[in-house]
Amino acid sequence: MLATEAPSDSPAMATGETTAELLDACCRLIDLLNTPQDIPFLSGLIQREIIYRILRGPAGARLRAIATLGDQSQRTAKAIAWVRANYAKPLRVEDLAKIAGMGVSTLHHHFRALTAMSPLQYQKQLRLQAARERMLMDGLDAASAAFEVGYESASQFNREYSRFFGQPPMRDIRTLRSPTALPMEFGNRQSAI
Predict the structure, then answer these.
(1) Domain that holds residue 80
(2) Do 132 and 102 have their domain in common?
(3) Is residue 192 scored above 60 in pLDDT?
(4) What is the pTM of this model?
(5) Helix/strand/coil (H, E, C) string of the chain?
(6) In this structure, are 134 and 157 located in the same domain?
(7) Averaged over 5-25, what is the pLDDT?
(8) pLDDT band of 62, cuts 50, 70, 90
């Protein structure tokens, strides 16, 4: 079963039914936000459980193909991993294509097929989510969070943050911290991670 490859033209995203076990693990991960002191000890374990349950589900074959086969998906996954590890650094798609061992247009095509976005859009989403996390968890102000995740302009960060999350950074953080915030508000956008 591990060697089963999904078609290379599979969509970047798909929906499907989930299991009670996967939903329970996701809820437990979100519940950790109520006990921040438990996050360093339990989040990794719960994330591993979520990955295990996803790999055992209908999407597992495609995800295993991406992770294990020496095809375009694996090389694209290498580029995705590089962006995730270096999202705060300036990104030149030409350099990313070299890392993946692909041409620029080929990388764009396969990157979009796996993530439903371009490398630069993916980097921007990672930066915005990381900045949100730093403001929420570390108490950083918007400008400090922006510079820490690689933005050179606080005003550009504020515009992109407002467009992505639906409100300016500090108002969003106040909303998330309010006692009436619903757990789903923490993940109100499609995730790049």
Answers:
(1) 70-116
(2) no
(3) no
(4) 0.64
(5) CCCCCCCCCCCCCCCCCCCHHHHHHHHHHHHHHHCHHHHHHHHHHHHHHHHHHHHCCCCHHHHHHHHHCCCHHHHHHHHHHHHHHCCCCCCCHHHHHHHHCCCHHHHHHHHHHHHCCCHHHHHHHHHHHHHHHHHHHHCCCHHHHHHHCCCCCHHHHHHHHHHHHCCCHHHHHHHHHCCCCCHHHHHCCCCCC
(6) yes
(7) 72
(8) confident
